[in-house]
Amino acid sequence: MDAKILCLAVLSQGDASGYEIRKAVEDGPFGHIQDIGYSSIYPALSRLLEDGLVSVTEYAQERRPDKKVYRLTPDGRMTLLGALQEPTMPDRTRSDFLFRMLFADILPPATVEGMIDARLSEIRHCIARMEQRAQSGFDSPGEEFLNGFAMTVQRAMADYIEDNRYQLVGSALLPKRAVAE
Amino acid sequence: MDAKILCLAVLSQGDASGYEIRKAVEDGPFGHIQDIGYSSIYPALSRLLEDGLVSVTEYAQERRPDKKVYRLTPDGRMTLLGALQEPTMPDRTRSDFLFRMLFADILPPATVEGMIDARLSEIRHCIARMEQRAQSGFDSPGEEFLNGFAMTVQRAMADYIEDNRYQLVGSALLPKRAVAE
DNA sequence: GATAATTTATATCATTTTTATATATTTTTT
DNA sequence: AAAAAATATATAAAAATGATATAAATTATC
Lengths: 181, 181
Known about the structure:
The structure is a homodimer.
Chain A (H helix, E strand, L loop, with lengths): L1 H10 L6 H10 L10 H13 L3 E6 L7 E6 L1 H11 L7 E3 L1 H6 L7 H27 L5 H33 L8
Antiparallel strand pairs in A: 1-2
Helix pairs in contact in A: 2-3, 6-7
The first copy, chain A, binds a DNA duplex (30 and 30 nucleotides) through helix 2 and helix 3.
């Protein structure tokens, strides 16, 4: 259900092929808050086509699979608009990193250190991308809001990790409970 | 694969039934970063049992389904420890709320307002729960780290939304482009 | 005190999503 | 010149999710 709406959302900003939808989600503003793979996109597009929510034009290409460019129909636009007004489900985060940090005291300190550094550089990379995007301007107020939101949150994350990592790695270096010696 | 590791993780903190695993994830520290439903838990437990990573004791209960309490085996504990040291996948957020905010300029202002208020109260509720937990102390340094992390991040979110909501609702109240009149 | 709602407890089914794989050419990087 | 990445669609198998079924005890509300 979600993959279909996400496809409609991307198509609302312009015609695209399945491949281009993927790219748009990955490195466009949707990327921060949604994920999608080809194996969700292609079935979703087939279904949307069946339901008359998108139309398709095939461009024959030499020695490549035909490029199928999809376009939102009026019905599709209405469906999207309707879906956007349905009540939202609570946000959720899935973090392998934090999951592991919960067990920091039973993991090798070097492993914990490595994970923290990896996560920090991931966050910094992400922030850099958003700063760049901020300079090229936004297509909508929502995009600007989202970019600012993500930057703020990511910075808060990085700061917290930097300020509190000693709690974790310190805990791994020392025995959990004082042992009489 | 993930549901199994999550079950092992919960069981590493004490024996539990499927039902109790669900509860532990939902309102324990895992809740911030993982989700799991019964339809993932029960198959996962069956599989873990097959693989010898957990053992089970059935407690017959009058007029209720037997309660099956699962316990980590030494093999299970090693598997968990191994899984925790595997490289982490990038964190990801799925936000219905932010997705809708991307389209704030084409949604009715009242709808946008409502969504923002709903999200803010959700966040505040979440922060309150974490503050409470902070007072009752933590079982591990990881838990304390995670709780602090989540509080910091949620506060940053709430602050950003409060400070910037006018960008969205303002944009919905006024026409996107100045129209000559 | 009676009724309604929630909690306890397990489980399956249908749908959706994800991960991995297949194929094949062009463009870019090294 | 060779290797890697981008372009482009698609499917199969595995896993996760949401909905539903069942049933009684406990708690909350009127």
